[in-house]
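Backbone-to-sequence.
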């Protein structure tokens, strides 16, 4: 959003507000709590015995995930490995985008997913090296962005200009690739991500909180890097807005029915 383009009239007062650079610059791409909050320590989660019989179990944390809409993002459209068209750079590479969430819905209404996450890690909002669980938080992949003259992270905006000053050097993200379609054949409010070392894939899981939302029953069909031990991630439709991160429930009692041994 460069200054000359600020002079362009928007179609409405709301559109005019959205065209202001501050609106895009204020958007926080730091990863959602539900996307990376490891509620069980890896070592403690690894000690949990795999569930082999049906029963109620206390102490679960339940979060939600969804294919992230490209329409929520403000970056310029760029090419991406594996995709024939162009897509918003922040939708592709930020910690609220496809490389974190795994799946997304493009501006064309079609589904896309990350095929390979690449060799790079994460950076904070300034472009400094960071990590999931670190004090700086994670804001963007360790590539797929530009650095400005001060060396800080920036990226081009869809309406012109830059998020944090003009970019002078592009930082590539090695090994990343994307693909059309969803990553898995999941169903909203029926599929759930689990730690397969603890809950066998294919298990049926009942969460009382969801009784009046979807009937409460789910099938373990997905996994996730932050899904450890007594942690569940419900697959749902995208929320109404970027700022709605979905439900986050703690101390939940759930009923797990592992699949029958063949």
């Amino acid at each position: 959003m460069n200054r000359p383009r600020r002079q362009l009239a928007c179609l409405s007062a709301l559109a005019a507000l959205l065209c202001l650079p501050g609106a895009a610059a204020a958007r926080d791409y730091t990863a959602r709590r539900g996307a990376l909050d490891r509620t069980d320590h890896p070592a403690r989660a690894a000690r949990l015995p795999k569930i082999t019989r049906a029963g109620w179990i206390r102490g679960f944390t339940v979060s939600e995930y969804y294919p992230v809409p490209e329409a929520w993002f403000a970056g310029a459209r760029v090419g991406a490995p594996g995709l024939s068209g162009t897509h918003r750079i922040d939708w592709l590479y930020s910690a609220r985008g496809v490389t974190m969430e795994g799946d997304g819905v493009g501006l064309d209404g079609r589904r896309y997913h990350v095929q390979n996450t690449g060799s790079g890690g994460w950076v904070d909002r300034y472009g400094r090296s960071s990590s999931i669980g670190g004090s700086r938080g994670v804001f963007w992949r360790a590539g797929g962005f530009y650095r400005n003259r001060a060396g800080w992270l920036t990226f081009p905006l869809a309406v012109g200009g830059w998020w944090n000053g003009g970019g002078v050097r592009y930082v590539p993200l090695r090994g990343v690739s994307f693909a059309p379609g969803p990553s898995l054949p999941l169903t909203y409010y029926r599929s759930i991500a689990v730690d397969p070392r603890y809950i066998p894939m294919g298990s049926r899981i009942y969460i009382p909180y969801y009784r009046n939302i979807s009937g409460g029953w789910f099938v373990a069909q997905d996994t996730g890097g932050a899904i450890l031990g007594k942690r569940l991630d419900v697959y749902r439709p995208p929320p109404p807005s970027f700022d709605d991160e979905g439900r986050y429930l703690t101390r939940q009692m759930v009923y797990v029915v592992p699949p029958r041994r063949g």
